[in-house]
Amino acid sequence: MQNAMSPAESAAVQAAVTDLIAAETLPISLAAQWLETPLGPMLAVAGERGLHILEFLDRAILSKELTQLRRAFGGVAFGPNPVLTALAGQLAEYFDGARTDFDLPLAPVGGAFHHSVWTALRDIPIGVTCSYKDLSLRLGNLKAIRAVAQANGANPISILIPCHRVIGADGTLVGYGGKLWRKRWLLAHEQRHAPAETGAQLGLPGFG
After folding, report:
1. pTM of the model
2. Phi, psi of 38 (to 5 degrees)
3. CA distance 167 to 153
4. Which among 41, 57, 101, 135 would be 20 to 30 A from 14, CA to CA?
């Protein structure tokens, strides 16, 4: 895949993140797992409240997200968790084209405004894209475009909170923390598997 990491690069980054988690010194309250996907390994972290993190291993702010999560909920260690078990199955179905939405408790760490943006992102159906302006209109504040873009970029739960469905007003892909080649792949994958009527589902500005 274009711009994908080499196997050696991927293994090195995965080992570094694994070592970071293995060095945990806080009391353990959260479980982590690596999940293999067609787009490379993803790190998932969950606890009693639900899924906190689902990120590709080369996400630039992954270490920062783990630090914020540890401050909020405690230590992280690799191990089993029912949310992670369910996530593995649902994510596999998504990549197989057999699932178009997810049924899991989500618990991303962030402030009230970030959560409002992430909730709006979850309202964008598979096969539909929108702009930052569309999201701002959805939230009732057109002047918040820059803040909406920042919250979109800070989303710690890839795919399930579909920030990849936000594109430029001119139709360009614009930025994506999981890398643009993955964004392009995800959008093409969802276009292939979206229900034919999905574009008319919301009736909201920019979401149809």
Report:
1. 0.92
2. -65, -15
3. 12
4. 101
Strand 28-35: give its sheet, edge to edge: 50-56, 42-47, 28-35, 75-78
- In angstroms, rounded to a whole number, what is the distance separating the alpha carbons of residues 115 and 142? 17
d(CA 133, CA 144): 8
Beta-bridge partner residues of 45? 32, 53
Could you read off the pLDDT of 36-53 as tens digits, one per residue?
A: 999 999 999 999 999 999
Q: What pairs with residue 67 in β-bridges?
A: none
Catalytic residue status for 130: no
DSSP output for 133-153: HHHHHHTT-GGGHHHHHHHHH
**Which three-class secondary structure state does DSSP give residue 43?**
strand
DSSP state of 30: E
Is the Cβ–Cβ distance between 62 and 43 less than 8 Å? yes
φ/ψ (deg, to 5) at 45: -130, 130
- CA 105, CA 87: separation in Å to the nearest integer? 10
Q: Which of 163, 166, 186, 187 is catalytic?
A: 163
Amino acid letter at 138?
A: R
Chain Cα centroid distance, residue 25: 27
